[in-house]
Design brief:
The longest helix is centred in the C-terminal third of the chain and has 21 residues. The N and C termini lie far apart (47 Å). An eight-stranded mixed sheet has the order 2-3-4-1-5-8-7-6, sandwiched between helices. A hairpin with a 5-residue loop joins β6 and β7. By secondary structure, it is of the alpha+beta class. It contains four helices and eight strands. This is VOC domain-containing protein.
Length: 199
């Protein structure tokens, strides 16, 4: 265990709620036509393209831009951009309702924390989630755990809580996965449609 890490097995129930370490990333939504302008603007701030993923079930391009380095990850700061050519995609529904801007902010959770217990305790406090804890692993066994707080309006902005766990090579999960992104958008669309009917 890291020297500055907290042993969550020795903490009280309420202490587990205090497991956010820092912002993991912020993701923006833009039209396809504005992709180049967005990337150029962030390149001038020192952010370079780290990865580009294309999802299938909800066709879109998701780009991670990173700046600097840290002890845990090959970046110190990350921002993201998602664009879609599908006019009916959740991305373009967001733009039609709210314009281009921040879709979600992701908070990095201490790797010692129990994500399922955190999910449960936040629900007990009145937080509403559009997903359970979603888990994905890479070839080295590094694990990515994510859960997404529900938007308050259809296709509105939301919060992500993400935990990146080390694999056998000692490196934390430092990427994303097209399946987890598609899973997110499936829940996002379903919850937004439910909100629309409710209101």
């Amino acid at each position: 265990m890291r020297a500055n890490s907290v042993n969550f097995s020795e903490r009280t129930t309420s202490d587990i709620l205090q497991s956010i370490r820092h912002i993991d990333h912020i993701t923006y939504i833009a039209s396809v036509e504005d992709e180049h302008r967005f990337l150029t603007k962030w390149n001038l701030l020192g952010f370079n393209e780290h990865m580009r993923l294309k999802t299938v079930r909800f066709p879109a391009t998701h780009i991670a831009l990173v700046s600097g380095i840290s002890a845990e990850y090959p970046w110190a700061t990350m921002t993201g951009l998602s664009v879609s050519e599908d006019p009916n995609s959740p991305i373009n529904k967001f733009i039609n309702l709210y314009g281009e801007g921040i879709q979600h902010t992701a908070y990095n959770i201490d790797p010692e924390a129990d994500m399922e217990e955190l999910h449960h305790q936040m629900e007990e406090l009145g937080w509403k989630f559009m997903t359970p804890v979603l888990s994905y692993s890479d070839e080295s066994g590094a694990l990515l755990k994510q859960m997404f707080v529900a938007p308050s309006t259809p296709y509105g902005s939301f919060i992500e809580l993400v935990q990146r766990l080390h694999g056998v090579d000692g490196k934390a999960f430092n990427s994303f996965d097209i399946n987890n992104i598609d899973d997110l958008y499936e829940h996002y669309a379903d919850y937004s449609n439910w909100l629309g009917k409710k209101n």
